[in-house]
Amino acid sequence: MPALAGEPMVYPSNLFDDDVTPRRDAEDAVTDRTWRVAHTKPRQEKALARHLHSTGVSFFLPLCRKVIRRNRHRQLSWNPVFPGYLFFQADEHERVEALRSNRIASLLDVYDPYELVADLHRVYRLISSDLPLFPEQRLRPGAPVRITSGPLKGLDGTIERHKSASRFVVAVSFIQQAVSAEIDACEIEPITDATPSESSE
Known about the structure:
The structure is a single chain. By secondary structure, this protein is α+β, with helices and mostly antiparallel strands. Helix content is 17%, strand content 36%. It has one domain.
């Protein structure tokens, strides 16, 4: 998983493992820790992630690589995929601790945590694939597709055309934003009612 040195974008590292990620069809574990969405103050996403990491609070801050060229030199940086948003799992005490960071503008209510986690799990897999990523600031209408081969096999999403390339779009419906990766058209198939899902989502 790509990450900033000493600054993981996901904590703990197994946050999206099958035995950790909650599923709608599984028996709910007895816990008061719930998923929350922080709308951060401008350019405070990484600082909030550092604060949560230092206090042991589970979080996911999707980051993508960006190459900056300055005076013939290339500099690699990591930018939030969804500027202004960080996703974390916390009980009431940890929620208060997060607010004490003074990095949060507001907390957004999550009415369907299963849908949110499923979306975040897909984003996590997209980032883990190491494909070039392209943040999509708003959702766009597109044909639903499923990837049939390669590192993203089994993922569902939509397909968009950008110039001569096809981009596979994974959306986080809760914040109405998305991220995409370029993919070979031969690796996708349209989703119909008769198409069985290979995804473990």
